[in-house]
Amino acid sequence: ATSGGLRIGREINESNSLFVGAVDDIRLWNVARSAADIAANRNTALAGNEAGLTLELRVDEGAEPEARRRA
């Protein structure tokens, strides 16, 4: 674990450069997920009650961002 803040849209390096690209959905988990788990579900809409999911920020094209947070 690190004590640094969460950054979305920036490189994690000395240059601190901005991310060039597009971000769709942002999901934060409090469990380790394998690359296979991530790949299998990356294009799948979540119900929001998945075990270990603590935050989901859905940025659907043409809609206002919607955030769901689980305590």
Give the strand order of the largest sheet, numbering strands 1, 2, ... along the chain: 1-2-3
CA(first)-CA(last) distance: 20 Å
Q: Beta-strand percentage?
A: 15-25%
Task: Give the helix tally.
Answer: 1
Short key terms for the protein model shown above:
three-stranded antiparallel β-sheet; 71 residues; mainly beta
3D structure, described in words:
- By secondary structure, the chain is mainly β.
- 10% of the residues lie in helices and 20% in strands.
- The protein has 1 helix and 3 strands, in the order E-H-E-E.
- It has a 3-stranded antiparallel sheet with strand order 1-2-3, with no helix packed on it.
- Strand 2 (53-58) and strand 3 form a beta hairpin.
- The longest helix has 7 residues, at 35-41.
- The model has no long low-confidence stretch (mean pLDDT 77).
Helix and strand layout, with pairings?
Elements: E1 26-29, H1 35-41, E2 53-58, E3 66-69
Antiparallel strand pairs: 1-2, 2-3
What is the structure about, briefly put?
By secondary structure, the chain is mostly beta strands. It has one helix and three strands, in the order E-H-E-E. Strand 2 (53-58) and strand 3 form a beta hairpin.
